[in-house]
Amino acid sequence: MSVLSPFVFWAQNETNIFLKVDLKDVKQPNINLETRKLQFQSQGVGARGLNDYAFEIDFHSDVDVKKSVHKITDNRVDFNITKNEKGWWPRLLTQTQKPFWLKIDHDRFQSEDMDDDVADVMQDYPNLYEKLQKEEFGYRKEDFKKVYLSLYNLFMYVGFMYVVCVLCVRYLRDGSDSFPGTYAAVGPAMCFLHLIQALEILHPLFGYVKGGMLMPSIQIGGRLFVLVMMLEFEPRLQVMPVVFYLFMTWSAVEIIRYPYYMSQLFKKENGLLTWLRYTAWIFCYPIGFVCEGVIIFRNMIFMEQDNSWALTLQTPIELTLRFSAVLRIYLLIGIIPTMYLMMSHMYRARKQKIGPISVRRPKARVFKKEK
Q1: Would the pTM count as exceeding 0.70?
Q2: How many CA atoms lie within 13 A of 197 on its CB side?
Q3: Does position 137 have pLDDT exceeding 70, yes or no?
């Protein structure tokens, strides 16, 4: 039967090694500390319940046995082991392979690059924290937020790139004759991607990204309105060329945006990608708003011709509520403020990231008078 080992957490400073044995109700342990070795054996309550536990540590360097002390409490056994020579150890053991029961005490760990009063290794020394994680687990652990956002951005990039590739192949093969079949080819994919994209409205709420919920709500809500309320229920709109230009414009924005987000997640700056992220909207946003306006306007005409999306109320005064009237009001007083809000938001972001949009002015010519 193999001997059970308790979890042992270790840390260090320049003069001491700290060990914390995760074993409860330890009584009369057998502890043998030598210059290069520590042997421990005792009965207690550990990860496997009440059992006999033991471990042995071969130190990387010599320790001072006389100055080293230990303390037994109800919850653990603490060792304060003094190094024989002042200095930082690259590891605790002589061998590079670390047993599974030996862990790093991140709360107390220090290195020669750290101040004595440091309290949080993960926040104040991220590079050291990653190094310790690799030493302990063999890989760098990522938090759920980073993994989720990485997979989400990758999935959305692949989805919109698929739309762009399909539209480009169809156009190269059939030219403008491919326009009527645009919605049939990629319409379901666009609806699916934008339904998934609605998660971006919740990301600020959960603290996954910085910023507020207003801008994502306006952009994604407007796109879903055009896709579901306008295009999905009106087959006559689906075959119009404006759908091709709208889908291509939306996708062009996204195949730049999501790779940029991924680069920021991994802190890999790319000058060209950053410039495209904060410049492409100058051309794409106006084209997208114009296409959306055309689709809403044409759908409004179809509704009025068919007398559809109308509700007649049986009252002393006959009253008919028409959805086309709502669309007319939006086109008259809503679309311009919405476009201004979105573009001003992107302009502020661009100004903060890469500076304002520069406009070159011709230099004034100075003509000298002839004598």
Answers
A1: no
A2: 25
A3: no
